Automatic annotation (TrEMBL), chain A:
<feature type="domain" description="4Fe-4S ferredoxin-type">
    <location>
        <begin position="352"/>
        <end position="380"/>
    </location>
</feature>
<dbReference type="InterPro" id="IPR037171">
    <property type="entry name" value="NagB/RpiA_transferase-like"/>
</dbReference>
<keyword id="KW-0479">Metal-binding</keyword>
<dbReference type="InterPro" id="IPR017900">
    <property type="entry name" value="4Fe4S_Fe_S_CS"/>
</dbReference>
<keyword id="KW-0249">Electron transport</keyword>
<dbReference type="Pfam" id="PF11870">
    <property type="entry name" value="LutB_C"/>
</dbReference>
<keyword id="KW-0813">Transport</keyword>
<dbReference type="InterPro" id="IPR024185">
    <property type="entry name" value="FTHF_cligase-like_sf"/>
</dbReference>
<dbReference type="GO" id="GO:0046872">
    <property type="term" value="F:metal ion binding"/>
</dbReference>
Automatic annotation (TrEMBL), chain B:
<protein>
    <recommendedName>
        <fullName>Lactate utilization protein C</fullName>
    </recommendedName>
</protein>
<dbReference type="InterPro" id="IPR022823">
    <property type="entry name" value="LutC"/>
</dbReference>
<feature type="domain" description="LUD">
    <location>
        <begin position="51"/>
        <end position="236"/>
    </location>
</feature>
<dbReference type="GO" id="GO:0006089">
    <property type="term" value="P:lactate metabolic process"/>
</dbReference>
<comment type="similarity">
    <text>Belongs to the LutC/YkgG family.</text>
</comment>
<dbReference type="Pfam" id="PF02589">
    <property type="entry name" value="LUD_dom"/>
</dbReference>
<dbReference type="InterPro" id="IPR024185">
    <property type="entry name" value="FTHF_cligase-like_sf"/>
</dbReference>
<comment type="function">
    <text>Is involved in L-lactate degradation and allows cells to grow with lactate as the sole carbon source.</text>
</comment>
<dbReference type="InterPro" id="IPR003741">
    <property type="entry name" value="LUD_dom"/>
</dbReference>
């Protein structure tokens, strides 16, 4: 799966999302649950805002000194016997990973959930090279066998109901039991256990790398990431270059924020900090590779969008977004959906394919309030709009004309007065009961789902003058 | 032996140039953090209060806590294993098994009662993994125990690897009471101080909070996905 998940137009993707009633129900109920859990997990601490400020400060300090901490991390991994590859592009990262697989003559690869491996299309390249690549996160595995992209960063198969999942398991793997989640999970456990035991290479992502130890932290509930780094003789870790902390003390803060913000837990079932082995532990990877991926991130550093690199991929912005709630993850056309996707995707892949994303936002600011590391997401979305309109000149012609006319009308008091006086009678053929009806070109997208009041016959200025006069008369009468 | 590092200088120089300066190779220290929030959590709690928090949290994470004494420990373990399908049992190399009076149980009683006990070994990778996969129980000691999240923490060392936490169907952590701390903060601070004093960091540190679980199918919680189906903490 590449960062771009389909070729359809934005409007078509959104229409499909709006018509998918199961997905919309599932998303709104999941949002509700995750929102409530996050709130209660945050409230328990009592000083959540202090935690957020601390998280923000740690992330900002790391980004400011990223070259230093990456150097320290590389040296410590190497000192422990691990190999480090700094990849400027996704293609370079994939090429290195393929070379490792070839060197090891590996055919069986098992992996844990990793957004950055999706971003660089690692699976496709390894499969083309003749390897079997098995996703081991339950949700990712279901999507992999059904050849579908994820629709949520933390709950990737959120858009699928249990009957659909049962049908996928039946069609692809001959599953014959019910759609009970426990039965289906038990079935998948049996299949994946075998894959873990046979795998020659394990690929994991990296929630955070710890610079002063050369260790990598993985946060999961299933324990699949732990098996990936326990059993195969070779482990490859693929990390986005910004996912690093100075020491385990800062890891404490960020893991606490991540677990609470993503799933409302104090800690997930498994939080593991691990790296190359000494050879005396009795298992673990005999060969360890860390691939540090830039793939467009360095272009964000030093720009007005730098705060987006503070992201810890908790998805709490997605879980509060009213737009995501309605249109679902696929509408964003990217493996990164929701507010974080609306900011990050155009930065990594440009405006040509993703210019609509910053407009898939009501600027309500719920994402900014929810972010555990205080990324001003809605402000960054607004900055994208500015960049598109001012620098790229990408606003549609109709919008440009409308804005020009609005500008002219509001700049001239006489024109404004005339326009506001005429407005009710000009639009009257299109209104009934004081609101616009359907079938009025550009207003359709709005009136299809919401009411749009017609301009009142009485203008505010007239109302104000009238009431002022009456007020003066009343005052005289009282005195 | 040191591992290789590829493309480092060009990569890091580019980052530095994006940040508008030269590459920094030294002289960076962590700033004074704005808040001490992690240290404020359960700051003045007594051991009894921490214990209450720990037990309450373990109920939330589907993990049974059994309180016992050193002398009762062998009996408690024996009962737990026999009531949950018996052996085989896998244990790591750990001098605490002897210290806690478990040698007789592990080396005589269980083997005589047809409960095989496999001891994880430093250089026997294939045998270890095979034994872990077929074991019904793994039994380990917690190095740090976090009250807030109901977590046991185990550091890897010679003869104590990774998969024995995740492959067996049932997981027993023996929790010495003195390992109880409020939260993650105290455990990582302790480990980070040791690293600062020149001690090598363990090759893996496992924070485990109950059994494996997933909510990937319609957000329904299913306990027991890839790792253990049940977890038990035996507090001594």
């Amino acid at each position: 799966m590449a960062l771009k998940i389909n070729e359809e137009k934005f409007d078509d993707r959104v229409s499909q999302g709006l018509q998918d009633s199961f997905m919309r129900g599932a998303v709104s109920s999941a949002q509700e649950r995750m929102y409530t859990r996050r709130l209660s997990a945050a409230e328990e601490l009592g000083n959540w805002e202090e935690w957020r400020s601390l998280g923000e400060q740690i992330r900002q300090h790391v980004l400011k000194n990223l070259d230093y901490y990456l150097m320290q991390l590389g040296e410590n991994v190497s000192r422990r016997g691990g190999h480090v590859f700094f990849a400027k592009t996704g293609a370079e990262a994939v090429q290195y990973i393929k070379e490792v697989a070839e060197q090891k003559q590996a055919r069986k690869i098992v992996k844990s959930k990793s957004m950055v491996t999706e971003e660089i299309s690692m699976n496709e390249a390894l499969i083309d090279a003749g390897c079997e690549v098995v996703e081991s996160d339950l949700g990712e595995y279901i999507l992999q066998i059904d050849n579908e992209p994820p629709s949520h960063i933390v709950v990737p198969a959120l858009h699928k109901n249990k009957s659909q999942i049962r049908d996928v398991l039946k069609k692809k793997l001959g599953y014959e039991q019910s759609d009970d989640p426990y039965e289906m999970t038990k079935f998948v456990r049996g299949i994946l256990r075998k894959k873990f035991m046979e795998a020659e290479i394990g690929v994991t992502g990296c929630n955070f790398a710890v610079a002063n130890t050369g260790l990598i932290c993985l946060v999961t509930n299933e324990g699949n990431g732990d098996l990936v780094m326990s059993i195969p003789k070779t482990q490859i870790v693929v990390m986005g270059m910004e996912r690093i902390v100075p020491t385990m003390e800062e890891l404490d803060v960020l893991v606490s924020l991540l677990c609470r913000s993503s799933v409302g837990q104090k800690l997930t079932s498994y939080v593991t900090v691990a790296g190359p082995v000494t050879g005396e532990e009795g298992d673990g990877p005999e060969e360890f590779h860390l691939v540090i991926v830039d793939n467009g991130r360095s272009e964000i550093l030093g720009s007005r969008f730098q705060p987006v690199l503070q992201c810890i991929r908790c998805a709490s912005c997605i879980n509060v977004c009213p737009v995501y709630r309605h249109i679902g993850g696929f509408s964003y056309g990217s493996i990164y959906p929701g507010p974080i996707g609306a900011v990050l995707t155009p930065l990594l892949k440009g405006y040509d394919d993703f210019r609509e994303l910053p407009y898939a936002c009501s600027l309500c600011g719920a994402c900014t309030d929810a972010c555990p590391v205080k990324i001003p997401l809605h402000e960054l979305i607004l900055k994208h709009r500015q960049a598109i309109v001012e620098k790229e000149g990408h606003s549609p012609l109709a919008e440009k004309l409308a804005m020009k006319m609005f500008g002219m009308g509001t700049a001239s008091p006489s024109l404004y007065q005339l326009a506001s006086k005429l407005a009710p009678s000009v639009v009257s053929p299109f209104t009934s009961d004081g609101r616009f009806g359907k079938g009025i070109g550009p207003l359709n997208n709005w009136v299809n789902i919401r009411e749009l009041p017609a301009p009142s016959k009485e203008r505010f200025r007239d109302w104000f003058i009238d009431h002022k006069k009456r007020g003066t008369t009343d005052e005289r009468n009282h005195s | 032996m040191k591992g290789t590092i590829h493309n480092r200088d060009s990569f890091l120089n580019h980052i530095a140039s994006q940040l508008g300066r030269d590459h920094r190779t030294a002289g960076i220290t962590r700033p004074a953090w704005k808040h001490d929030a992690p240290w404020e959590v359960m700051k003045d709690y007594t051991e009894e209060q921490l214990l209450e928090v720990f037990k309450k949290q373990c109920r939330n994470i589907h993990t049974a806590v059994i309180e016992t004494s050193k002398t009762q420990l062998p009996g408690v373990l024996k009962k737990l294993v026999s009531e949950n399908g018996g052996g085989p049992v896998i244990i790591p190399e750990d001098s605490r098994f002897e210290e806690y009076g478990l040698t007789r149980l592990l080396k005589q009683e269980w083997p005589q009662e047809n409960v095989p006990v496999y001891q994880w070994q430093a250089k026997k990778r294939e045998e270890n993994l095979k034994a872990a996969e077929t074991s019904n129980f793994s039994i380990l000691f917690s190095d740090y125990t976090l009250a807030e999240s109901g977590t046991v923490c185990v550091k890897a060392k010679k003869g104590l690897g990774r998969a024995l936490h995740y492959l067996p169907a049932n997981y027993i952590a023996i929790v010495p009471r003195h390992t109880l701390v409020p939260r993650l903060t105290q455990a990582v601070h302790d480990m980070n101080r040791a690293i600062g004093n020149g001690e090598p960091a363990p090759s893996s540190i496992h924070f485990i909070s109950g059994p494996s679980n997933s909510a990937d199918i319609e957000m329904n919680l299913v306990v027991g996905v890839h790792g253990p189906l049940q977890a038990f903490y035996v507090l001594v």
